[in-house]
Write a structure and sequence with these properties.
The chain has 237 residues and is of the alpha/beta class. Helices cover 35% and strands 21% of the residues. It has six helices and eight strands; from the N terminus they run βββαβααβαββαβα. It has helices spanning 40-51, 75-83, 87-103, 118-129, 175-188, 215-232; strands at 2-9, 12-19, 28-32, 55-59, 111-116, 135-139, 162-167, 192-197. The protein is globular.
């Protein structure tokens, strides 16, 4: 079952697309959008997680602007929107979703955060500001190591296991930033894996964008993601 719900935040109401599995769930995944909003692709990802037994929620991180979604051809319009969403706003929004989940009986310790593109940066940010998460997964998140909202210097606060996926040909996350992320997480003692995929660029796992989608690397990244989540957030019988 899927539905839109409204969650109150300190900055006003926020729509959240929610997908529920057939049986009541005691574990959840918060899915964080690309730069284009909670569009059909992100909604589809919530359904995929629900099919695997997770309660999946995708908060509308654009709720402060009145804009809901943008087309994939509206990259120029998306950039200032995601540029305006810094660590405090991300923490506010994900914290509100976690409060909602707690009200449903699902604590942060049974919740993972999975983000894509801008949402990857948001997922990493959440891991640095919100303690006690079960796991974090970052799909090609630019702006973690450099940029106005870089939070790599806060990596010492991360206490959740982290999995990162990066395309070797992704111009938004150059090799020096990939190495910097790995080095900082290692020095911080973070339980993490970072995988770099050959013949893959930005958004390589987005099957809604055929010109960017790379089935081989995408399948491998998803297989690793599911195994990672099942390891750190196992289903309870």
């Amino acid at each position: 079952m899927t539905e839109w719900i409204t969650v109150e935040t300190a900055d006003g109401p926020m729509r959240v697309h929610t997908a529920r599995p057939d049986a009541p769930a005691d574990r959840a995944v918060i899915v964080l959008q690309e730069a284009f909003g909670v569009n059909d692709h992100i909604q589809d990802i919530t359904r995929r997680f629900a099919a695997r037994g997770f309660l999946a929620l995708a908060p509308d991180l654009f709720h402060r602007t009145g804009i809901t979604t943008l087309g994939y051809d509206q990259h120029a319009e998306a950039m200032p929107l995601i540029g305006a969403i810094g660590p405090d706003a991300i923490t506010t929004d994900i914290g509100a979703v976690l409060d909602h989940l707690a009200g449903e009986g699902v604590p942060a310790a049974r919740t993972a955060v999975v983000g894509f593109c801008f949402g990857g940066r948001a997922a990493f940010t959440a891991a640095t500001t919100i303690p006690g998460l079960a796991a974090t997964v970052v799909f090609y998140g630019p702006g973690i190591a450099a940029g106005p909202h870089a939070v790599l210097d806060r990596a010492g606060a991360i206490d959740a296991p982290m999995l990162l996926h990066v395309g070797a040909d992704d111009p938004t996350i150059p090799a020096d930033q990939v190495k910097a992320i790995d080095a900082v997480l290692q020095n911080a003692g973070t339980d993490h894996e970072q995988h770099v995929y050959d013949d893959a660029g930005h958004a390589f796992a987005c099957d809604a964008r055929p010109h960017m989608y790379r089935p081989g690397p995408a399948d491998t990244a998803w297989t690793r993601t599911h195994a990672f989540l099942d390891r750190h957030l196992p289903a309870r019988s």
